[in-house]
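Exercise 7. Predict the structure of Xaa-Pro aminopeptidase from Chaetomium strumarium.
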Amino acid sequence: MDFDAILQGKYPARQHARRVVDYIRSKVPDATGVLYLESRMTKLLEDNDEPEPFRQRRFFYYLTGCELADSYVIHDMDSSKTTLFIPPINPESVIWSGLPVSAEEAMQKYDVDEVKYTTDVNAQLAHVAGQKAKSTVFAIPNQVSEHVTFLGFDNTNFSILKEAIEVCRVVKDEYELAMIAKANDISSKAHRVVMERAKHAKNERELEARFLADCISAGARNQAYHGIFAGGKAAATLHYVHNNAPLKGKLNLLVDAGAEWDCYASDITRTFPINGKFTKESRAIYDIVLKMQLECIAALKEDVLWDDVHLLAHKVAIDGLLELGILKGDKDEILANRTSVAFFPHGLGHYLGMDTHDTGGNPNYADEDTLFRYLRVRGRVPAGSVVTVEPGIYFCSFIIEPFLKDPKHAKYIDAEVLERYWDVGGVRIEDNVVVTKGGAENLTTAIKDPDHIEKIIASS
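Solution. The predicted structure, encoded as tokens:
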């Protein structure tokens, strides 16, 4: 994908608005009126005169492509006209912050039909309401400023707009895929730099700093999430956040980190030996996880049931752990008893887009079946959706020891063989994949071939 060429155009906000309107009308026939959304508002830090770090509201961005704070948008459902309202010039703030984006500049930058200033929003709402009979304002609860009034409209609907955008966000258009590919390209290069620096680093935070520096220098100032830089046994903690432990004497480093490009996320995990050479045990686990991932990606295509792909990952894991002797007994019994959950406790992946754990996955965390309880995606995945495929095998004593004490599971685990694997910590490999009609396209280019990884680290 030539993502840089695609990104020369505008974010397709009006196309998104039409998609949202179609969804609303599929649920509310003959719906007429306007969609109303607000951006994130500037808010000062508590006990401070500095603003909080800004993160644009994803619902607003989906209909505008606008990253500005303190803004509004109105989309007329009948005329398909989108009007963006941006802050006017405040002479008192110009001396501190410089000139803001003008209406003329905003028209050139964003895919909207008209740009006005926020001082006009109530007048524009009243004007639109006066032209429409039996019209409705569709908005999101708790995302309407107190000074904004919907007088003149016959109805307000605060129930369906959020749902509509969440569902529409699942299937990405070409421009959105290009932004995710761009984020992946920057992040993949930063992952390689971390591999090259690993054996010279003394502390996890040095490698986190290196990753951040490379992303920022490539133009991606924001991370999609707080990265994980976990050395040794810390890699068995799924969402390890400390990133401040010494690396001396530890086998592997697990790096789960991804940059964001214009509000669109990447989410990549790589696990590698800090000194450049996998131990026998580490390589054996790595090979199992890589096989899990490759077979799951190969199974992806339009309308595949995500539960089935996750189940496939467990079957591959069980086969691999049986071969190593960590598991013992009949593989079908092991699967039926859910003993493999001790080593692979999380879901295979999740939707990816404007959020790392993107909308539309319909998880069921109350599922009594422990194999599927933590899946963030349930149901069939459509073409055009982006999913992470991130199998893992972990040696976390807090999780595994209860299995060892439970006769139902203990008979399938060889504790003596297991003893050799605790220092591996955990291995996870994660790529970002576009589901297509007949298969899948991998957007992640970070190196994962184990022999290639060893060569990179050894030569650094």
